[in-house]
């Protein structure tokens, strides 16, 4: 099958409205979206398009996320990754609003794909088998270092290995078993606690700066982080049947000149861009017909190594492209739309 790309268009922010930004992205229905601006007039097609009025529940049901959970329960390796520029709504789509905690949970209506998937996963596990084992891991990649976010103490770099049977995997990553929604959400919040914050001048809102584009897997379990979150789940009924459900929150593409980043922030932004460029290159090559493909350079970055199985291997992937409708973000919006359009042509063999 091909990746199942969906598009989410967030509403204009108050800042964008006050400064008079024009809305240049319009949903046409039936999975089509139109971009109309000076010197730009293009239509793009996706499996589903969710406009500014779409609820979190509508995105969960309409994106095929429920079916992906069921496939993971059947033993498939399933991956969901959100991408788009900083401030486009990736983290909100995956996790819901920022600032959640054990004492201040988000409203049920605002919960993202991850929490809704956890609920569905637990319901499925209870109805299918009593001996089902569920475990989770949580990783990030920051400046090409893979870190385990569930290990006690400060995050430390873990080695990335390769084997013929497992592919790329993270050595010594921690995997934690869970049996309830409260337990897995607690792990998610634990791994998502902010460590260091930067300031995105374009959006006038804080953004995570301790996370680069990231993803990780080991023992059939995948997890990831790159902006405020992600997690992953493993469901296995016996040693020979092991399914995974991985969520990847890719860091937003950074324009160093526009953000005013300098010093360490500039190094981080450039590292993010190199990682996303490597991912885009792999997607472009994978989109070619199998007979015309050249070598796929998965080894160009830690991100592409750990996404190799999801992109062009034995996995099933849901891609969620998030964009802003603002005329000020036109360049990044078009880049994201072209990125997702290329990914539609990738085929995998789960």
Radius of gyration based on Cα positions:
19 Å
Largest sheet: 8 strands, mixed
Query: Helix and strand succession?
Result: EHEEEEHHEHHEEEEEEEHEEEEEEHHHEH
DSSP helix fraction = 25-40%
Shape: globular
What proportion strand?
A: 25-35%
The CATH architecture designation is 3-Layer(aba) Sandwich
How many runs of DSSP E, i.e. beta strands?
20
Distance between the termini: 8 Å
CATH homolog superfamily? Kinesin motor domain
Q: State the domain count.
A: 1
Specify the number of helices. 10
Unreliable spans are: 195-238
Give the class-level CATH name.
Alpha Beta
CATH fold label: Kinesin
Structural class: alpha+beta
- The strands making up the biggest β-sheet line up spatially as 5-1-20-6-19-18-7-13
Mean pLDDT: 78
GO molecular function, one term: microtubule binding
Keywords: ATP-binding, Cytoplasm, Cytoskeleton, Microtubule, Motor protein, Nucleotide-binding
Pfam family, one: Kinesin
GO cellular component, one term: microtubule
């Amino acid at each position: 099958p091909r990746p199942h790309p969906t598009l989410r268009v967030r509403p204009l922010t108050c800042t964008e409205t006050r400064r008079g930004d024009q809305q240049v992205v319009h949903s046409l229905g039936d999975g089509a979206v139109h971009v109309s601006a000076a010197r730009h007039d293009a239509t793009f097609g996706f499996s589903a398009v969710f406009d500014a009025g779409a609820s979190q529940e509508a995105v969960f049901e309409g994106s095929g996320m429920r079916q992906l959970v069921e496939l993971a329960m059947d033993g498939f390796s399933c991956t969901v990754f959100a991408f788009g520029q900083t401030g486009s709504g990736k983290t909100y789509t995956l996790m819901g609003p920022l600032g959640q905690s054990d004492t201040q949970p988000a409203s049920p209506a605002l919960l993202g794909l991850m929490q809704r998937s956890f609920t569905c996963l637990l319901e499925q596990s209870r109805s299918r088998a009593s001996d089902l084992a569920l475990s989770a891991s949580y990783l990030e990649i920051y400046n090409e270092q893979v870190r385990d976010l569930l290990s006690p103490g400060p995050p430390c770099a873990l080695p990335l290995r390769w084997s013929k049977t497992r592919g790329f995997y993270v050595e010594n990553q921690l995997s934690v078993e869970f049996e309830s929604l409260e337990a897995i959400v607690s792990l998610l919040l634990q791994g998502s606690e902010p460590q260091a914050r930067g300031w995105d001048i374009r959006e006038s809102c804080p953004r995570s700066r301790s996370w680069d584009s990231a993803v990780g897997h080991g023992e059939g379990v995948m997890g990831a982080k790159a902006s405020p979150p992600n997690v992953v789940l493993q469901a296995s009924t016996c040693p020979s049947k092991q399914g995974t459900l991985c969520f990847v929150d890719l860091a937003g593409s950074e324009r160093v000149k526009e953000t005013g980043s300098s010093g360490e922030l500039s190094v981080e932004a450039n590292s993010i861009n190199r990682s996303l460029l490597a991912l885009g290159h792999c997607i472009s090559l994978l989109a070619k017909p199998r007979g015309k493909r050249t070598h796929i350079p998965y080894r160009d970055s830690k991100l592409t190594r750990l996404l190799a199985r999801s992109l062009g291997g034995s996995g099933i992937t849901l891609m969620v492209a998030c964009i802003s409708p603002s005329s000020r973000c036109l360049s990044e919006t078009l880049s994201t739309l072209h990125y997702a359009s290329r990914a539609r042509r990738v085929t995998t063999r789960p």
